[in-house]
Amino acid sequence: MASVGRALLSVVNDLSSSEDTLLAEDVAIRALNLMTTFHCRHPQYPIGPALH
Length: 52
Hints:
The chain has 2 helices and no strands. The chain is mainly α. The chain has one domain. Helix 1 runs antiparallel to helix 2. The model has no long low-confidence stretch (mean pLDDT about 75).
């Protein structure tokens, strides 16, 4: 999950430097929703800042 988190942050950073801030916000919201869904479906994995 750490590599997924880093990849998502990289994409959001790239999008935020563009002029389409609504797209960057939408991508960030969807990424957070995906990570939340993953942790809800797989509670055996720990939650913490090191994972994302």
